[in-house]
Amino acid sequence: MANYKTYKPELRKNFNYSCGYCQTREPEIGGSKNSFQIDHYKPKSKFPDLINNYENLIYACRACNGYKSDYWPSSIWDNLLKKIILNPRVEDFEKHIDKSNFAWYGITFRGKWNISTLRLASETQISIRKDRARIEKLISKFEKQTLIFQTKIHVEQNNGDLGKVKELKTELKEHMKDIEMLRGKIQGPKD
């Protein structure tokens, strides 16, 4: 069986370059090298036989991994009270946490407990989500403008104004670079 650290590239892809707990994306907090870690859902200190089990590994930001640490329900009361970290591999967070707003809200006691324990409604998390929403809105606006550029290019081609076509294509190319730059702030891998 492979050492769990060798799974990081695969985990990154499987978790869409985002923290399994707070869903913060790599580009939003500086990339994978310093900001993301491999969490053992069932802590290695309590479940050493699962240390290299891929199904027990969660791609997590440094903050969530630190808040979770090696927590595992230690008593029947913890289990009864649902003081259990949600497992992003197998559980539907939306059953426990309303994510429709920037400040996530716990629907169930377990959801509220996870929000509190992992600080999923912290000012930092809210700020990251607001920034992401603003960038997504800008991308959407720019993508609509791309269609306008393409229509103008088509019209000018039909009019035979090759100078205007060249000018519009240059503007469109710059516009597309802006869209990709914005996407890079919130999507995909960042090493």
From TrEMBL:
Picking any one GO molecular function of the record gives:
endonuclease activity
Pfam families per the record?
HNH
Q: Which residues form the HNH domain?
A: 19-69
Top-rank taxon of the source lineage equals: Bacteria
Q: What is this protein called?
A: NinG family protein
What is the organism field in this record? Legionella qingyii
